[in-house]
Design brief:
Length: about 280
């Protein structure tokens, strides 16, 4: 998830000594336990405020072990996650069902404890009472609205066919390796939406060797677009090492592509998802 970063300064702490040393916090790690039913939004104000107020150097580590709950509360948490300036790690530490899965898929990084995971996505349940025609109108509206919501929430993590299946009443249970695959798909999906290109073998094979080098090693940082700068955070250190260690400019185009795939891109995506 690409976010607009802003300058952040922590609270200044004066040194208790008489020397010329002062200290201030650079970043915090905020650990949030999602280990109860996701109930009334008012009961989640502290967690939502913590996520929303995190600084750009902070890490918000959300450990999820819940059977789910109210979607409106989950959406309030997700909204805070989308506006969070820090990095969000969502970790599965037990049961993750219903509204809990909606929160999980909105992390920037994912950790999956494969021996403990119980992961299920299903159709929302609700109740509505009143005049028969009103109940019918609500049911029709809710079904169509739910499909739109699920596409926004699970887009990239679930396929369109899976979203249709879930909103039509099927429960979808996923194994750890299936979650892992979908997390990687979600990262690529979010990158595409933000304009970050998906660098595949086919992408490079259509270019000349000189074009490939120009993409990987621009002469000046200001030549990078905002999207490339965001993507460059993933691979900048590796690229510098590769340019020197593998002497890329002296290699053939085919060898160059092999090194790119082996050392950077195919491996790089997986650093964001871990089985534990």
């Amino acid at each position: 998830m690409n976010k607009n970063k802003k300058a952040y300064q922590g609270d200044y702490l004066s040194s208790p000594t008489t020397g010329s040393v002062s200290s201030y916090p650079f970043a915090y790690t905020h650990e949030i336990l999602i280990d109860r039913d996701i109930d009334n939004p008012a009961n989640w104000r502290e967690e939502i405020q913590c996520i929303r107020n995190a600084g750009p150097n902070d890490v918000v580590h959300m450990l999820i072990n819940t059977d789910g709950g109210r979607l409106d509360t989950a959406f309030a948490i997700i909204n805070a996650m989308q506006h969070c300036q820090g990095k969000i790690i969502t970790e599965l530490v037990g049961s993750c069902c219903s509204a809990g899965t909606a929160i999980f898929v909105h992390g920037d990084e994912f950790i999956i404890n494969e021996l403990q995971v119980n992961f299920m996505i299903h159709q929302a349940s609700h109740g509505y009472a009143g005049i028969d025609s009103h109940v019918y109108d609500y049911a029709v509206h809710s079904r169509e609205h739910l499909k739109t919501l699920y596409k926004a929430v699970y887009g990239g993590f679930l396929s369109d066919e899976e979203i249709d299946s879930v909103t039509n009443g099927r429960e979808l249970w996923l194994k750890p390796e299936e979650i892992l695959e979908r997390c990687n798909n979600k990262i690529k999906h979010d990158g595409e939406l933000s304009g970050v290109p998906e660098y595949t073998r086919e992408f490079f094979e259509e270019m000349t060797k000189e074009q490939i080098i120009d993409i990987l090693f621009p002469q000046e940082p200001e030549e990078l677009s905002e999207e490339q700068v965001a993507y460059d955070e993933l691979v900048s250190k590796t690229k510098k090492v590769l340019e020197t260690s593998y002497n890329m400019k002296a290699k053939t185009k085919e060898l160059l592509i092999e090194k790119i795939m082996d050392e950077v891109f195919e491996v790089g995506w997986k650093t964001y998802v871990k089985l534990k």
